[in-house]
Amino acid sequence: MEFFSTIISAVIIFVSGQFGLKLIVEPIQELKKEVSKVLNAMIFHADRISNPSSNTKEIGNEISKLLRKHASNLEAKSSIIPAYKIFEIFKILPSKINIQKVSQLLIGLSNDLYDSTHGMENSKIIFKIKELLLIKASFYELFSAWLVFIFVSIGCYTLVEFLANLIN
Q1: What is the mean pLDDT of each run of 10 residues along the chain (168 residues)?
Q2: What is the pTM of this model?
Q3: Structural contact between residues 155 and 145, judged by C-beta atoms closer than 8 angstroms
């Protein structure tokens, strides 16, 4: 009987681990990848965004589509993360409000790639996007996140032990 409860416990741990991985960890990683792509695009295309008069129609359209794609991806990828507020509180992810602001700013930039009078304003928007997406976690916030992780781990272990004892 003890062998059977060990097998059941192992299966429960594996399934719960996979559940957490697919439901929480992978979507967070996807959002963080998208944030890095946005930051990369802001740096790589800064010369074209800050100097719209140098853009040909072809280049402007390409950058515009890229910015719109990033705006929609940020919104979409942040919307599938369950309990987003928890990750926001512990500074693991940018706030939902910041994601929405960045998305709006990216759409605005994509519309201003041909107007030569918006060069300086576009440079300020690039800076603002970087500022909104970067996470500045303090030691206290990182320590708090670590404590929450420890307590959740202990809770999962206790739950598995409880279920194993029920089976016995």
Answers
A1: 71 78 87 93 89 83 94 95 87 91 94 76 89 74 71 76 71
A2: 0.76
A3: no
